[in-house]
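Thread: "does anyone have the structure for this chain?"

Original post by V.I.:
We have the sequence but no experimental structure in hand. Need at least a predicted one for the grant figures.
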Amino acid sequence: MCSSSQKVINYGRSMENIMITEGDPVPKFEINDANGNSIKSSNFKGKKHVIYFYPKDFTPGCTTEADEFSKDYKKFQKEGIEIVGISPDDVESHKKFCDKMEIKYPLLADVDKIVSKQFGVWGKKQFMGREYLGVTRSTFLVDEKGKIFKIYPKVKPAGHSKEVLDDFLKLN
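Reply from O.Q.:
Generated one for you, tokens below.
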């Protein structure tokens, strides 16, 4: 079912030093979606799902990624795969983003960065010589048992949705 090699992710984060490994269970979480509803990781128990982390609503890369997952959403559903997007944006921002982009899958508001830290995707980043804290765009594929079976660190948004769907179909 899973790839034969294990991948360990920690992004060199001294701040959190969390490691997620393919084969690990999904960390438990509970945060709000774009409608203010509380969503738990256990809501996806027994379902294959994609959890993708992205830095910010309405930015070019994040808009591309959300748009591609939206366009492919019916293909994912046909295969019994749910999609969940998570960023540090608040519920109001997610609501506006979902409305504008016509996103049908849940976007979760990780304003306290707790879930991002649990997955090891929150930490130091660099851009144009400036260091700051943020989310590293990453995706996790999860099987029906709640185990992470593939990790995509440092995702390039264009074409990623198709890559994820193709890999899900190959690996399952």
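V.I.: this helps a lot. The domain at 8-171 is CATH 3.40.30.10 (Glutaredoxin).
O.Q.: and Residues 70 and 102 are 7 Å apart (CA to CA).
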